[in-house]
Amino acid sequence: KAGVTQTPRYLIKTRGQQVTLSCSPISGHRSVSWYQQTPGQGLQFLFEYFSETQRNKGNFPGRFSGRQFSNSRSEMNVSTLELGDSALYLCASSQGQGYGYTFGSGTRLTVV
Amino acid sequence: QQQVKQSPQSLIVQKGGISIINCAYENTAFDYFPWYQQFPGKGPALLIAIRPDVSEKKEGRFTISFNKSAKQFSLHIMDSQPGDSATYFCAASIYGGATNKLIFGTGTLLAVQP
User: Fold this and answer.
1) What is the per-residue burial (b if ≥16 Cβ within 10 Å, else e) of B75-108?
2) B101/A92 touch (CB, cutoff 8 Å), yes or no
3) Which chain B residues are within 8 Å of A93, Cβ to Cβ?
């Protein structure tokens, strides 16, 4: 069974640009969540989607957005990139409420 | 109230020893407590999880101890091996709630010396 796939693995962007990250969950998993991981802040929840609906959103500015498609694949977008957005962005999928999460290997975003 | 406090920040253990990592939470609504293991360049992987209806759960060399009244839980790694060297995160969430949002601890970098 394939795991959670995140693309791309590495990304370098310039301040002010925008970026889109992609996540393909495990087949059959309808819940997808995104987390930001940095050395200073640790793992911070970004958003959670279930059946194309955003169920929860973390405490991040509106520059961070996401969506989920009918096949459960998800994308997150960050507009007007700032240096502080440099982080490992992790996607996790789950069968739904009460089930554990499986994380992907993440996308390492560097903003220069 | 949403925080999960984790200690120690780093830990060095000799091969064969016991590694112990502790976490504490405030929100009494939390009722699902997983532990994740993360190796460099990889995402966190679910190691073991516990719900408050039991005080201890063991899977192989990994044991979670849970103290509901103290709002604390800990991970014990018995017979620690160099391959266990990784960063460990505790987390908490509301099981079966409207959201699966996980609140993570700050992580513990474990080094097991041969």
Assistant:
1) bbbeebeeebbbbbbbbbbbbebebbbbbbbbbb
2) no
3) none
| Cβ atoms within 10 Å, residue A39 | 8
Given a contact cutoff of 8 angstroms between Cβ atoms, the answer to whether A36 and A44 are in contact is yes
Residue among A99, A101, A107 with most chain B CBs within 10 A, to mutate: A101
Half-sphere exposure of B68 (CA within 13 A, CB side): 12
**Contact at CB, A33 and B100, closer than 8 angstroms:** yes
pLDDT digits (tens, 9 = 90+) for A49-107: 998 999 899 999 999 999 999 999 999 999 999 999 999 999 999 887 667 889 999 99
Q: What's the rounded Cα separation, in Å, for the pair A3 and A16?
A: 32
Q: What is the pLDDT of residues A8-50, one digit of tens each?
A: 999 999 999 999 999 999 999 999 999 999 998 899 999 999 9
Taking alpha carbons only, the member of A24, A20, A7 closest to residue A72 is A24
CB A52 within 8 A of CB A70: yes
